[in-house]
Amino acid sequence: MYVCICNGITDHQIREAASNGCTSVAELTMRTGCGATCGSCLDMAGDLLAKALATHDLPLPVLGLQAA
């Protein structure tokens, strides 16, 4: 879904920015342009960024392999 209509930024792009190390809304704006025009999307963008940062992908264990 589009979060920032002014700059065409989607929720997928916000999650991608979070997975690439983006940790604040200010940094998100610098990286993607989200919120840079009118700013009405910043609350939603901040919520999505926080949720993305709180979600951790748990690695699946690899069975049968021993550490060298």
From TrEMBL:
PANTHER family: BACTERIOFERRITIN-ASSOCIATED FERREDOXIN
Entries under InterPro entries matching the protein: BFD-associated_ferredoxin, BFD-like_2Fe2S-bd_dom, BFD-like_2Fe2S-bd_dom_sf
Keyword set includes Iron: yes
Keywords for this protein: 2Fe-2S, Electron transport, Iron, Iron-sulfur, Metal-binding, Transport
Name listed for the protein in its UniProt record: Bacterioferritin-associated ferredoxin
Bilayer-crossing regions: none
Domain BFD-like [2Fe-2S]-binding: 2-50
Organism for this UniProt entry: Stenotrophomonas tumulicola
Key word Cell inner membrane present: no
Family annotation (Gene3D superfamilies): BFD-like [2Fe-2S]-binding domain
Family note: Belongs to the Bfd family.
Named cofactor requirement(s): [2Fe-2S] cluster
GO molecular function: 2 iron, 2 sulfur cluster binding; metal ion binding
